[in-house]
Design goal:
Layout: E1 7-10, H1 21-31, H2 35-42, H3 47-69, E2 71-74, E3 78-83, E4 89-94, E5 98-105, H4 107-111, E6 114-121, E7 124-132, H5 133-151, E8 169-172, H6 175-183, H7 186-206, H8 213-225, H9 229-233, E9 237-241, E10 244-249, E11 254-260, E12 264-272, E13 280-287, E14 294-301, H10 302-313, H11 315-322, E15 325-326, E16 341-345, E17 349-355, E18 359-366, E19 372-376, H12 379-384, E20 386-392, E21 399-405, H13 406-421, H14 429-435
Antiparallel strand pairs: 1-2, 2-3, 3-4, 5-6, 5-11, 6-7, 8-9, 9-10, 10-11, 12-13, 12-18, 13-14, 15-16, 16-17, 17-18, 19-20, 20-21
Length: 438
């Protein structure tokens, strides 16, 4: 097999001014508004001022020179980044540790036809800013192709995705459907209303117009929770790629986000209360290297969601997700939502279902992705002979099989530890000790 071609390049010339463009424009506009008068006055300027101007010009030249020596180089196993004139800095991104390569095109950047290549490496983010669009697409395509080598390795039985060829659109969210789903998200809208009410409390108490400024303090969070989501997720399209998927979205700031099979730890399905009539769900994936689950589909029908789960984890995972073993009847003394709690496990997957009044969630994951299993029992649970099993994965919150029978919880914990400990990636004793599997 021949070695892949080496790709080299330099960042866009606008890069040195990406943080000082506003100040640069203001200085240029001020100086050139009356250029002949500036030349006449320059003969009477003090020397210290001329030295200062020369220093500023030198700094501008240094910024340009820094851009001239900034370059990247993609080889078969790593991406090399070099910058600096006097103090040189080199970075090396190992492709086997690279989790995602995403393109971000901000609104202002689209005017100059530049974009940012966002790299995620072991929980840290690094940006190559700025690249022209064709340059970024070429580099990202090469990164995805070379990163997919380990993603195409054999998987556990039953977790093989349906296809590996790229280019097929799996999901396209219509703007009208997205807008309606955001309005019907009752829990988010309730939080936004409560925030607005809390901002109006000072005015209601004091009756002073100046107290209305407290509303300005909550408008930002309310906007991020509601109105901002529609332009951010506008045009959401999920496309299959070799070794994973790519999501394209954004109305003003366009983004391309990568999801890799090898980094997927669990799938989370959320269903707000008002979505149940239309049988809509939101699909998220817990990805190694991220603190919170990443959105795979902001809104999808149940059929589309099950198809995505089958693509990610295999058809057997869909069967486990739809099967349930409810909590014991006496759990009603521990929570009013005991009938909304269920749990299911087979040889390859584990599923936890938790239903609330405003939102229910389903956590689904391969057993071999489990990092830690803990059985916990509170004082009231001890009296009822109940216990909760906490199942920890990378890239998201732990799934909880709540209020199971105490003996059943002990058996579940031992069984999951045995299954996770027998997985190929759990063979390392050091990893087993860190994961609490021994």
């Amino acid at each position: 097999m021949s070695e892949p071609a080496v790709i080299e390049g330099r960042l866009h010339p606008v890069t040195p001014w990406r943080r000082a463009w506003a100040l640069t424009c203001a200085v240029v506009a001020f100086v050139f508004r009356d250029l002949p008068e500036w030349f006449r006055q320059a003969q009477h300027w003090p020397r210290w001022f001329l030295v200062l101007v020369a220093a500023l010009v030198s700094l501008a030249g240094a910024a340009y020179g820094s851009w001239r020596v900034t370059s990247y180089r993609l080889t078969a196993d790593a991406l090399h980044y070099r910058t600096g004139i006097l103090f040189q800095r080199r970075r090396r991104f190992e492709l086997k540790h690279l989790q995602a390569a995403d393109i971000h095109r901000p609104l202002l950047g689209r005017l100059f036809e530049v974009c940012t290549l966002h790299l995620s490496v072991s929980g840290q983010s690094n940006n190559l800013a700025y690249l022209n669009h064709d340059q970024a697409e070429q580099l990202r395509a090469a990164l995805v192709e070379r990163m997919s080598a380990d993603a195409l390795a054999p998987r556990a039985p039953g977790s093989e995705p349906a296809h590996e060829e790229g280019g097929q659109v799996l999901l396209a969210v219509q703007p009208k459907t997205l807008a309606l789903s955001l309005v019907m998200d009752a829990s988010t809208m309730l939080k936004a209303v409560l925030l607005l009410v809390s901002g109006l409390v000072p005015y209601a108490v004091s009756k002073e117009p100046f107290a209305l400024l407290s509303v300005a303090g909550v408008l930002g969070p309310v906007w991020r929770m509601t109105g901002r989501l529609w332009p951010r997720w506008h045009g959401w399209t999920l496309t299959r790629e070799p070794g994973g998927y790519r999501a394209d979205f954004g109305l003003f700031d366009t983004r391309h986000q990568t999801f890799r099979h090898a980094r997927t730890q669990a799938v989370v399905l959320e269903q707000p209360w008002l979505w149940r009539g239309r049988d809509w769900v939101r699909v998220l994936v817990a990805t190694a290297g991220y603190r919170q689950p990443q959105i795979l589909a902001p809104v999808a029908t149940r059929e589309e969601a099950e198809r995505l789960v089958a693509e990610l984890l295999g058809q057997r995972a869909v069967e486990v997700m739809n099967a349930s073993e409810p909590a014991p009847r006496r759990a009603c003394w521990a929570t009013a939502f005991s009938r909304a709690l269920s749990y299911r496990v087979d040889s390859g997957h584990v599923s936890v279902w938790r239903g609330m009044f405003l939102r229910n969630e389903i956590h689904l994951a391969p057993v071999d992705k489990i990092q830690k299993v803990v059985a916990a029992q509170g004082p009231w649970q001890r009296r009822l002979s109940l216990a909760t099993v906490w199942i920890h994965f990378a890239g998201g919150e732990a799934a909880a099989a709540c209020h199971r029978d105490a003996a059943e919880a002990i058996a579940i914990t031992a069984d999951l530890r045995r299954r996770a400990g027998s997985a190929p990636e759990a063979a390392d004793p050091a990893r087993r000790r860190r994961a609490g599997l021994t």
